[in-house]
Design a protein that fits this description.
Radius of gyration: 30 Å
Number of helices: 19
Helix content: 40-55%
Strand content: 15-25%
Oligomer: single chain
Number of strands: 13
Shape: globular
Distance between the termini: 48 Å
Structural class: alpha+beta
Length: about 500
């Protein structure tokens, strides 16, 4: 027999909001693992001791976290979701019949608190991971990723045109008409207004084409929508406006996000290594013993700074061994450290003939005796006609060679091997689940807050998972884990396993 559900609302209900929220809900686990009372000490200096009571600052931060936990990128929609979601109400401490704050309180809170408070809030998530036993001394993995800006290429204008005049053309004509009441002026004003309306709007495709012919660069063009965003060219996604997030992870299996710095999209990540490591130490209180990064960070300047700081570099060097214009590269020449000479492909000795400063670093220049190259049978494959082949070696080249040797050892392979899954797994998690694929707001300081909050929810989820008492995982197969735990607990498990 087919059943048919007929809804008949009751006049009175006997229920508890606490009973309606599942015991294994994510927000229950977060609430039991994290004490948000620290928010009051963080924000106390930003409130007056007199006047009407404000919205609870802990409620403001919890509201923001809900949006990042569940990837709700619109704050208006976030408040609508909180209005109807019982778990969200329970997490914020609002009963069923209580009114939810307006979405504007979030905007006001960002302006009121500024970046300092949000950075300290991010630090608290790191401390939560430390209490959960996830933060331990070990390798620090560093990398960066582009975050698409909430602005279109159509918003690009020349920098000299980006300065907004006090009045738009229409407003200027109207003000001119009101300040000078005259029949002739009114008629001329109407003609000017008609002319303004008759001007066709520039098509974005034509603008972009013209921009490319004129060599559109970030020096010449700026977005009116988000002036801090810069144009980047991605091989897969093409031209777009973006920021760049520089992140470090550490702890057990690299589970804890320990630093997050936002720059414009064109800043080279290799120049931010020292700043990211310094931020890691500031947030965790732990010194860096081992730094792990990809080839982009393999600059000589980074090896020197890490060596001076007593940090082992597990970073492949960014070397250009291939020759230019089809000529043989440096890899064809063998260095003999005992004699400080190079042996060329023709088995001739290349000795030091000059010491120079190249790109800010002292380097030795090696070549054969005068006349040897011109008479060599391999000259046409080694260097242009009439030239002497020169090989350059930095004074600190030993640091690069030691880094290569370090990476080839079993310890180096065990440290560098998990780099991609640990640091890039964080980026995938943030972009797929927590709204990091595109900025929510405009302006670098606001994007910085967004990246910190994304890192915060990742840390809090992992801290909550570590604090929850679970059965011994070793006795379960992967299929059993899926059946034993709820959907949200499984999401926490996958988050922890990245």
């Amino acid at each position: 027999m087919m059943g048919k559900r007929i809804f008949a609302p009751k006049l009175y209900y006997q229920l508890s909001l606490d009973d309606l929220v599942p015991k294994n809900h994510l927000l229950r686990q977060i609430s039991s693992a994290i004490d948000f009372s620290f928010v009051y000490s963080l924000t106390k200096s930003h409130y007056s001791h007199t006047g009407q009571p404000s919205v609870d600052p802990a409620v403001i931060f919890k509201t923001m976290l809900i949006g990042y936990f569940y990837g709700i990128t619109s704050e208006r929609r976030l408040m609508n979701e909180i209005q109807v979601n019982l778990a969200y109400r329970w997490f914020l401490g609002f009963d069923i019949d209580e009114e939810i704050p307006d979405h504007s309180v979030l905007t006001k809170a960002r302006s009121r608190f500024g970046t300092d408070v949000f950075e300290k809030f991010f630090e608290q998530s790191i401390q939560a991971c430390a209490k959960a036993g996830l933060l331990t001394e070990g390798p620090v993995y560093v990398d960066s990723t582009h975050v698409a800006a909430a602005a279109s290429l159509d918003s690009l204008v020349r920098r000299e045109d980006a300065i907004k005049p006090p009045y738009s053309p229409r407003e200027f004509v109207q003000k001119l008409s009101s300040d000078n009441p005259s029949t002739e002026l009114d008629a001329s004003s109407n003609r000017v207004a008609d002319d303004i309306n008759a001007i066709p709007k520039a098509q974005s495709s034509e603008f972009l084409t013209r921009g490319r012919h004129e060599g559109r660069t970030n020096d010449n063009y700026v977005s009116r929508t988000d002036p801090d965003a810069t144009v980047v060219n991605n091989a897969r996604l093409g031209l777009r406006l973006a920021y760049k997030a520089h992140v470090s992870v550490s702890g057990k299996r690299g589970l804890v996000v320990t630093a997050a710095i936002v720059t414009t999209g064109i800043v080279g990540e290799e120049h931010l290594l020292g700043e990211v490591l310094k931020s890691h130490t500031k947030h965790t209180g732990m010194t860096v013993k081992q730094a792990v990064a990809d080839t982009r960070y393999g600059m000589l300047a980074n090896y020197i700074s890490l060596e001076q700081a007593g940090i082992e570099a597990f970073i492949p060097p960014h070397e250009r061994n291939n020759g230019v214009n089809g000529y043989w590269g440096k890899e064809r020449f063998r260095y003999v450290p005992e004699k400080d000479v190079y042996i060329c492909p023709a088995e001739r000795t290349m000795a030091v003939f000059h010491v120079a400063t190249i790109r800010g670093q002292r380097a030795k220049l090696y070549r054969c005796e005068r006349g040897v190259c011109q008479n060599c049978q391999l000259h046409s494959r080694c260097t242009p006609p009439g030239n002497h082949r020169t090989v350059t070696r930095s004074i600190n080249q030993g640091l690069i060679e030691r880094a290569k040797e370090r990476l080839s050892t079993p310890v180096g392979q065990s440290v560098f091997g998990p780099r991609k899954t640990r640091i890039e797994g964080i980026f995938a998690l943030g972009k797929d689940l927590h709204g990091l694929r595109r900025t929510r707001l405009m302006g670098r300081w606001k994007v910085q807050i967004q990246v910190w909050l994304t890192a915060t929810v990742i840390n809090l989820k992992r801290a909550a998972w570590a604090m929850v008492t679970l059965p011994d995982a070793s006795s379960f197969s992967r299929e059993k884990w899926i059946f034993v735990f709820s959907r949200e607990q499984l999401g926490l498990f996958l988050c922890l396993s990245v």
